Amino acid sequence: DRVREHHDEFWHCSFCDRIYWPGSHVRRMKRRLDEIFEGG
For labeling, which of 10, 23, 33, 38 is most exposed (least CB within 10 Å)? Predict the structure, then answer.
């Protein structure tokens, strides 16, 4: 599975029983937050 090849950090939601990992949405959000807090 490609996800397991590229990621080593996963979280299991006990409420919905799904597995999550930090994907591109996390990188984009971190970049945007950096822009906001750095005055961008």
Answer: 38
